[in-house]
Amino acid sequence: MARSPLTREAVLEAAAALVRRRGPDALTMRGLAAELGTAVTSIYWHVGNREQLLDALVERTVRDMGAIRPSGSTPAERIVSVARSMRRELRERPHLIGMVHERGLTDRMFLPAQRALVAEVRAAGLRGARAADAVRAVQFQVVGFVLVERNRERSPVQSPGEGELWDQDPPPDSAADDPELARALARPADPERLFLLSVRALTESLLRAPGP
Q1: Amino acid 166: pLDDT
Q2: Which residues 6+ apart lie within 8 Å of 201 measured at CB?
Q3: Residue 108 lies in a domain
Q4: Residues 6+ apart with CB under 8 A from 207
Q5: Which of 211, 82, 193, 206 is nearest to 137 (CA)?
Q6: Are residue 30 and residue 132 in the same domain, yes or no?
Q7: Contact 31, 18 (CB under 8 A)
Q8: Which of 23, 47, 82, 206 is most buried, judged by most C-beta within 10 A?
């Protein structure tokens, strides 16, 4: 069967997949040509040299992050949906996001999501500095949570682990009064559940009417 003609988009998709699997250092023109089963000259024809290829990948990542769209019937639900989308995009593209950051385009990458958050906090009645604080708080929550997740995933296996520590040395007061608490802390953390719990609580607090 005849091979489909090589396109710029096919080259960028293969390059992005290679970076996701093995990191930016693994992205060489020869390696990419081998992935695509083509000549190195074909890669140069479609995307230029390696630096131009990296720039195109960064632009593509910025564009993909701009595709985030809110969903839900209330401002709070839509804010949470944007936060979930941001977390998913950050987790799926850690090396590509790092390349965006190195080129000083992080703010540009997050601008579409920031605009979506601005629309929702305004729809909820927030204005001025309070609206800006709400938008930034959600963004910081997402980025901070993803950083903690990735650090936990990359850290060496702990011995004894968190669960074993709680089994061996439960809190003296709470374990007696609340054995379910000790059992829950001994179980592995569920990042997805914790993320939703934290971002929903944060969102509800931010949108709540201000006190006197």
Answers
A1: 57
A2: none
A3: yes
A4: 75, 76, 79, 121, 124, 125, 126, 134
A5: 206
A6: no
A7: yes
A8: 82
Predicted model pTM: 0.78
Q: Looking at the structure, do residues 90 and 150 belong to the same domain, yes or no?
A: yes
pLDDT (tens digit, 9 = 90+) per residue, 70-79? Answer: 999 999 999 9
| Same domain, yes or no: 138 and 96 | yes
Whether residues 41 and 108 fall in one domain: no
Residues 93 and 137 in one domain: yes
Give the whole-angstrom CA distance, residue 180 versus residue 100.
44
User: pLDDT band at 165, cuts 50/70/90?
Assistant: low
Domain extent, residue 41, equals: 8-48
Task: Answer for the pair 95, 23: CB distance below 8 angstroms, yes or no.
Answer: yes
Which DSSP string do the residues of the chain spell out, in sequence order?
A: -PPPPP-HHHHHHHHHHHHHHH-GGG--HHHHHHHHTS-HHHHHHHH-SHHHHHHHHHHHHHHHHTT----SSSHHHHHHHHHHHHHHHHHH-HHHHHHHHHTT-HHHHHHHHHHHHHHHHHHTT--HHHHHHHHHHHHHHHHHHHHHHHHHHHSPPPSS-HHHHHHHS--TTHHHH-HHHHHHHHSPP-HHHHHHHHHHHHHHHHHSPP--
Domain total for the chain?
Answer: 2
